[in-house]
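quick q for whoever's on today - can somebody do inverse folding on this one?? i tried earlier but teh output was garbage lol. tokens:
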């Protein structure tokens, strides 16, 4: 067997130019596949993280009718009991109670529909890190009079900047129309430009006084210390508070759940397509090798080499050729991913800013799951074996007497 291994390895270098071209093609294919998969994985993971951290949190609690009618009069009952339990639950990393009101934001030049969120600045900062997304001006200051945070997209649309006055119009708890003047304290920017354009943040007590009740809580957003415990946590609290609607991030945003699952699926799809393309080139290379060596193979079988050994020899040649290219492709692929994993790839100068329209950041940090290092070699070996079968069968079907007379 050792002799067969040595012969097979030497055979692939009998035509070094052709073998080298094939190895480079395999390397380039796998490198490209790994880069494409890592970018897709990084993009999906970033969208998941920003979506959960900045928009939905791990769970949200509402009054059931609030979800159906989007009316601020449907507040969370038993709030004191619930918040005390959240404060004492070791699994809860942070939570934030919010007042949610649909309304209009008006400036001197434009009016735009927005969701007005009344928050506690400190609790919101711990839950969604809103304070870290301020790009101009300052975070909400409880000592200021009617401060408001607006998103960058909304600020550009309404030509508003820190210090500008805006008017928020909405319905109070009695259904009467209310208007209030607010001063822009700061401008925030997240990875989702649509979120930035449709949400404004004010102090909970400020919006409460215009609604007719200071302590109005329509939504409680919760972040857990362990994301894997989200489902169990939701079931536990749903049994304790059946009168409330408790939804996980995947229920709040099925699109986000789809993105979360898409990363590994995308990797497999990209890789399989590339390996299928490489398989045809590899099969063509091995067929050419067999055809060029018809007389040699006939002589080997004439002097006693069994067809089984000929079959194994062709299989080994294909495997060596594939694994050599695959090893180079994996090494260069993982090296490239490692290089950009921390610094990222900035697509802002090539139209990457449009990614924010879909909730993605323009700087992509490629990622590869550790399991890919195991899955990839297995797929490569399967590809090598499957593409070697036809050339190997072609070789063992040769008739030694006729093959040795080939020129």
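ok took a stab at it. sequence:
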């Amino acid at each position: 067997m050792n002799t067969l291994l040595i012969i097979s390895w030497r055979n692939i270098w009998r035509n070094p130019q052709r073998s080298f071209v094939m190895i480079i093609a395999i390397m380039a294919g796998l490198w490209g596949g790994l880069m494409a998969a890592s970018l897709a994985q990084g993009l999906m993971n970033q969208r998941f993280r920003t979506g959960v951290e900045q928009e939905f949190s791990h769970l949200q609690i509402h009054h059931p009718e609030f979800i159906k009618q989007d009316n601020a009069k449907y507040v969370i009952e038993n709030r004191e009991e619930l918040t005390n339990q959240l404060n004492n639950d070791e699994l809860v990393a942070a939570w934030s109670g919010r007042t949610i009101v649909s309304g209009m934001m008006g400036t001197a030049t434009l009016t735009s529909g927005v969701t007005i969120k009344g928050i506690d600045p400190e609790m919101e900062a711990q839950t969604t890190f809103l304070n870290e997304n301020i790009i101009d001006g300052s975070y909400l200051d409880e000592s200021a009079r009617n401060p408001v945070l607006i998103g960058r997209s909304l600020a550009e649309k309404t030509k508003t900047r820190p210090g500008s006055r805006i008017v928020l119009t909405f319905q109070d708890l009695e259904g009467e129309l209310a208007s209030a003047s607010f001063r822009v304290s700061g401008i925030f920017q997240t990875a989702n430009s649509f979120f930035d354009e449709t949400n404004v943040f004010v102090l909970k007590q400020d919006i409460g006084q215009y609604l007719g009740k200071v302590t109005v809580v329509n939504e409680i957003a919760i972040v857990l210390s362990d994301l894997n415990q989200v489902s169990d946590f939701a079931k536990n609290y749903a049994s304790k508070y059946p009168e409330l609607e408790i939804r996980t991030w995947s229920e709040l945003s099925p699109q986000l759940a789809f993105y979360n699952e898409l990363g590994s699926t995308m990797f497999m799809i990209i890789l399989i397509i590339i390996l299928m393309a490489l398989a045809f080139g590899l099969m063509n290379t091995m067929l050419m090798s067999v055809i060029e060596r018809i007389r040699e193979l006939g002589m080997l079988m004439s002097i006693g080499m069994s067809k089984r050994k000929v079959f194994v020899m062709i299989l080994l040649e294909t495997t060596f050729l594939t694994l050599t290219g695959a090893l180079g492709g994996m090494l260069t692929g993982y090296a490239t991913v490692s290089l950009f994993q921390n610094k990222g790839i900035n697509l802002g100068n090539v139209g990457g800013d449009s990614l924010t329209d879909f909730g993605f950041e323009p700087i992509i940090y490629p990622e590869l799951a550790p399991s890919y290092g195991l899955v990839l070699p297995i797929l490569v070996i399967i590809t090598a074996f499957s593409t070697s079968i036809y050339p190997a069968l072609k070789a063992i079907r040769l008739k030694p007497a006729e093959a040795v007379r080939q020129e």
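fwiw The longest helix spans residues 16-56. also Residues 5 and 316 are 7 Å apart (CA to CA). so keep that in mind when u check it
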